[in-house]
Amino acid sequence: MKSRENLIGAWAILLGVVVAIILGIFQAVLTKNTQWIYALLALLGIIIGSATTMDDSRESITFLIAIISLVIVSYMGQTTLILVGKVGIIIVTILNALLTMFIPATIIVSLKTAFSIASFK
Questions:
Q1: CA distance 48 to 78
Q2: What are the boundaries of each domain within the chain?
Q3: How many CA atoms lie within 13 A of 11 on its CB side?
Q4: 12 vs 5, 6, 15, 98, 102, CA distance in Å?
Q5: Which pLDDT score is estimated for 6?
Q6: Is the torsion defined by CA of 112, 117, 119, 121 positive or negative?
Q7: What are the tens digits of pLDDT across the range 24-66?
Q8: Concatenated DSSP letters for 37-84?
Q9: Quick check: 89 pLDDT over 70?
Q10: What's 85's DSSP letter?
């Protein structure tokens, strides 16, 4: 069962990253109505957070460190990348989409990790 949960989480991450890249590349076409894409990415984030939570706290902490690093760098890098021009705007859109996906995943994994640490065994 554990390998199946990791497989679902891996496919959800891959799908979310691909959707985020497509959103960034085709932002000029999709500027009219992109709310459903961000809702899809948030839903994928919830699936990722639920599916990638492991019983092993070492794996959970590794996941959290990687995702928190990505979230911090994505958020902080946006102000600099916007100055690059048209390509920078596309990269910022990709980073926003990644943030939309990974923030719910990070919240779910961190809450599950906190509860597993605090639970009596």
A1: 24
A2: 2-118
A3: 5
A4: 11, 10, 5, 12, 11
A5: 66
A6: positive
A7: 777 656 667 778 878 888 888 888 888 776 666 677 788 888 8
A8: HHHHHHHHHHHHHHHS--S-HHHHHHHHHHHHHHHHHHHHHHHHHGGG
A9: yes
A10: -
